[in-house]
Amino acid sequence: MTDLFRKIAPVADELGRLFVAQGHELALVGGPVRDILLGRVGNDLDLTTDARPERVLEIVRDWADSVWTIGIDFGTVGVRKGNWLIEVTTYRSESYDPKSRKPEVLYGETLEADLERRDFAVNAMAVRLPGHEFVDPYGGMSDLKAGRLRTPGTPERSFDDDPLRMLRAARFASQLGFTVDEKALAAMTAMADRIEIVSAERIRDELDKLVCGAGPREGLRILVETGLAEHVLPELPKLRLEIDEHHRHKDVYEHSLTVLDQAIAQEEDGKPDRILRWAALMHDVGKPKTRRHEPGGRVSFHHHEVVGAQMTKKRLSELRFPKDVVADVSRLVELHLRFHGYGTGEWTDSAVRRYVRDAGHLLDRLHKLTRADCTTRNKRKAQTLSRTYDQLEERIAKLADEEELAKIRPELDGNEIQRVLGIGPGPVVGRAYKFLLDIRLDKGMIGKEAATEALLEWARSNDLGG
């Protein structure tokens, strides 16, 4: 054990000596201890102390390169020393009022009491500094070896103190590949509606970490089976459409999780692609609303991509995702079926250009999402779809050699349109620009002279003079 803790950054021991010299305790706690035991070391350190926040500021002020106090109301002081980011939090106990979104912070007196209020036993281990005494009063080490998530005290009390811990259980299952203790799962199921007192931003952060974890399928399954998803991502459980013997179709819920798995398999450099993952998860959320039973036992989902894009935009906006993330994910959901109009290669070059232009900066992700969306067990059908998409990508590459598809512009810009038509800025310029862009997409480069003639003819046919 001592050998393991030699990986603790010297900067932590240095700070530990500083606190001890001032008559206070300091310990490395939570995630960093867990990660050291798992053989992982990062540049973020979580420390805990008996010193109150104002005293912490006094101790670190001359030692730190910089200090920030954004979390001081919750007992946390942030410190940067070299490349290390350190958070020092006063021993505490926090709980939620049943009608409040914000925790009430109560300071504690001992390390052991502080550890009891941690979310899971694997995060309730500490190492006193600078002596490296290992403190594990709740069996975190045995849980770590078993790959198990269990609360230090009763799960009911833990989740009542901070309902977000229920989402954290699913998130850690995704990130660490751990299983959740049966008692904790039962409490999560019974207390699922308690999550509604937590702010959208905190829920978003946990869901995002879950989706971007190593194995999001398991974490999402936990959310659905405990009923938590009904409160934080209700579109997901609604994908579990009933399947009867007369109207057979794929299990959309399982299909969506498989598409997510297959999208992840296409990521590059092992880095999670947030936009691609969320698009894969949400791509079919429009199906429940658009499902229709057709003659012969068929089931249709006409325009589910359009409805799904609207639903995705609404959900991600309510979760307070950045506007660019909302726009990109919902756009991919809207475009995910476009390829299926390609058939066996019937698209004209102009249709291929439109596909590229509509995808814009999302083209590479759209390629991956489209390929991930093939979950058929029919190997011949899967191979045919794959070959057809290979051909489409080859055509895109060929056209890209001839012109920069993603940057296609009309051959006349706004100023030239105004000069040709003898008009000033206004909506007519925008309409003319779109007309010329359509020509550009349909016919490629025709030259400025031909573009000018086409513009004048368009103006005459629309009674715009020229």
Features:
elongated, Beta Polymerase, domain 2, magnesium, tRNA processing, 466 residues, two-stranded antiparallel ribbon, single chain, seven-stranded mixed sheet, CCA tRNA nucleotidyltransferase
How would you sum up this structure in a few lines?
With 466 residues, the protein is of the alpha+beta class. It has helices spanning 10-21, 31-37, 53-60, 111-116, 140-146, 155-161, 164-176, 182-190, 200-211, 216-226, 229-232, 252-264, 274-282, 287-290, 304-318, 323-335, 349-359, 363-372, 379-402, 414-421, 427-443, 448-461, and strands at 26-29, 44-49, 66-68, 76-81, 84-90, 92-96, 103-107, 126-128, 133-135, 148-149, 179-180, 292-293, 299-300.
Describe the structure.
The structure is a single chain. The protein has 22 helices and 13 strands. With 466 residues, it is an alpha+beta fold. It has 3 domains: 4-231, Beta Polymerase, domain 2; 234-242 and 249-407, Hypothetical protein af1432; 414-461, no CATH class. A 7-stranded mixed β-sheet has the order 3-4-5-2-1-8-9. A two-stranded antiparallel ribbon has the order 6-7. A two-stranded parallel ribbon has the order 10-11. Strand 3 (66-68) and strand 4 form a beta hairpin. Helix 7 (164-176) runs antiparallel to helix 10 (216-226). The longest helix is centred in the last third of the chain and has 24 residues, at 379-402. The relative contact order is 0.05. Keywords: Coiled coil, Magnesium, Metal-binding, Nucleotide-binding, Nucleotidyltransferase, Transferase, tRNA processing. Its cofactor is Mg(2+). One of its GO terms (molecular function) is CCA tRNA nucleotidyltransferase activity. It is an enzyme of class 2 (transferase).
